[in-house]
Amino acid sequence: MTTTWHADPGTLSDYAGGTLDDVRATSLEAHLLTCDRCRNGLASSTPTERVDRVWGGVVETIDAPRRSVVERLLLALRVPEHIARLLVATPSLRASWLVAEALVLGFAVIAANGASGRDEDVALFLFLVVAALLPVAGVAVAFGPGVDPAYEIGAAAPMRADRLLLIRAAAVLVTSMSITALAALALPGLDAIAAAWLLPALGLTVATLALGTWLRPFVAAGVVALGWVALAAGAAVSAQDRFAVFRPAAQVACLIVIGASTAVLAHRHTVYEGGIVV
Fold it and tell me: Cβ neighbours of residue 114 under 8 Å, at least 6 residues apart?
């Protein structure tokens, strides 16, 4: 295309300064698309400080990560911004993980509601065993190489690794327990046994963190989970009471495990400063 006219310096200066009227500005913008001479003239008429400021704003807007719904909710709850960012990066706090967790519990609740007689006890027993294990699985993938995309960033951040791990573990624990508590409300014949998974869940989670000072998180969680399943299954088969591991005596044992594991974690928390055991 051949241009037959060129904008005068005054018009270009007015355009660069934002004072040119809309009709002339639109006409000039269409002309600039095909005219190198006027584009060069406009470049020399535009203050470089303004161009740099506008371009900086564009780059900042494009590069700035968009806050998720969860992060905005955490900020609304007065959670410090750096803590909120660390929490939303936790793999086991992502929507896909939480949905999967809800589905597992949902199927367990459906099975419990659909069962009758002896099968109803079996379904409730399985719900309680699984409910106690869910936080353990969440903690196993909350922080560590290979499972956390932000692990290297977190390890290099000016925050102690043990503190970061405990913050994430606490968030996973609270989230998992909240989902499980909602699911437990849908169990048939709701009574105190529906809440009997709480202390085992807390005990297994703290035990996983304590064992994680010696073993990889996955291995520590696996050892704890297998031990719990074996204990629950063994007690259910050998004892007269299928729910023996959820009765008051077992709850006291859970408190002892929580106390012992907390003491170990307090004594060995500095191990996490050297990075997760791999």
Answer: 123
Can you read off the two tokens belonging to residue 214? 């010696």
Q: Is 275 left (phi over 0), alpha (psi -120 to 50) or beta?
A: left
**CA-based torsion, 60, 63, 66, 67: positive or negative:** negative
- What amino acid occupies position 256? I
Average pLDDT, the chain: 81
* Long-range contact pairs involving 112-115 (C-beta distance under 8 Å, separation at least 24): 112/187, 112/188, 113/186, 113/187, 113/188
Q: Is 29 exposed, middle or buried (0-12, 13-18, 19+ CB in 10 A)?
A: exposed
User: What number of CA atoms fall less than 13 Å from residue 200's CA on the CB side?
Assistant: 28
- In the chain, where does DSSP find H-type helix? 9-17, 22-32, 36-45, 48-63, 69-76, 81-88, 95-114, 118-140, 151-156, 161-184, 198-211, 217-238, 248-268
- What amino acid is encoded at 257 in this protein? V
Q: Please tell me the total number of residues recorded for the chain in this structure.
A: 278
pLDDT value for 87: 77
Q: What is the mean pLDDT of residues 199-207?
A: 92
Can you tell me the distance from the alpha carbon of 35 to that of 33, in angstroms, rounded to the nearest whole number? 6
> How far apart (Å, rounded) are the C-alpha atoms in residues 119 and 56?
65
DSSP-derived 3-state class of residue 4: coil
Residue 248, C-beta contacts closer than 8 angstroms, at least 6 positions apart: none
**Based on C-alpha coordinates, what's the Rg of the chain?**
30
190's tokens: 């709701």
Q: 244: which 2 tokens?
A: 């023996």
pLDDT tier at 94 (50, 70, 90 boundaries)?
confident
